[in-house]
Automatic annotation (TrEMBL):
It comes from the Bacteria. It holds the Pfam family DUF285. This is Surface protein. PANTHER family: SLIT RELATED LEUCINE-RICH REPEAT NEURONAL PROTEIN, TIR DOMAIN-CONTAINING PROTEIN. NCBIfam families: Liste_lipo_26. It comes from Ruminococcus albus. The lineage of its organism: Bacteria, Bacillati, Bacillota, Clostridia, Eubacteriales.
Amino acid sequence: MPIWWNGYLYAVTNMHSMFKNCSNLTSLDLSGFDTSKVTDMYAMFYGCSSLTSLDLSGFDTSRVIFMDDMFRDCSSLTELDLSSFDTSKIYPEVYKYLWQNSLGITGYSMNGMFAGCSNLTSLDLSSFDTSNITDFSDMFADCNKLRFLALGENFKAIPEEAALVNKEGWVTENDPEKVVSGDGEYAIIKNNGKNIYIRFDYDTKLTYPTNIKVEYSAKYHQVRFKWDKVEGADRYGIAVYLAGKWRIQTQNITDTVYTSPKNLTPGKTYKVAIAARVNGKWDTANAVKNAVTVTIK
């Protein structure tokens, strides 16, 4: 985000504590922020306890090295999608000796990043790279309502010190009967690949399609979608994201397969969501979260 100062144009690199303790702030539009030069987002939203939603999908975090306490005490947030975040530069090797030797820092940190987000139920960290992180202390402390957690292949593990509440344990959406988080007060999860974790003491019955597979036909320029059956679902629906809006294509699918019309534009990319109707209710929120992106061949 460039700013003018004394007749010169500067690129902002430091957003340390930018909105810290804005406790009466309920909404925040950061769609115009250019964060491509920012290196410090430490405690950026710390204490924004009345903030109910936060869209950071446009944030470029490719240079950020500090994210400690970034969302601490954002106690009114219920969902947070950080799937676009690039965390690979947090305390990179080039800073190792500068910071560790001069300041005595002994690890790379996500300390307290979501601590105090007491109403957070869903968190998407599928793009997080924690390869350099050695300090996870209190990362999820007091996130007692967290029930859905998405991790990607570069988020290798959640250690006990991250303080992710365990209760009856965490399971994966693909194997909802097997607890994978140990039996202690806080979860210990070894993550392999891309997984959505669900807290076992909540109702773990899924109400949206998973394991979505895409088949392409270059001959007819169309795609076919297949997915796992959702228990109790009597209908499935398809929606496509077009011109900034989700547009329903059909809601009358009774099987677990859908084939698009023929002769779609080659090279055009679509975002597609598949929803299920269970007990008369459509779970569109999770359908959108699990949308797939396809490019016509």
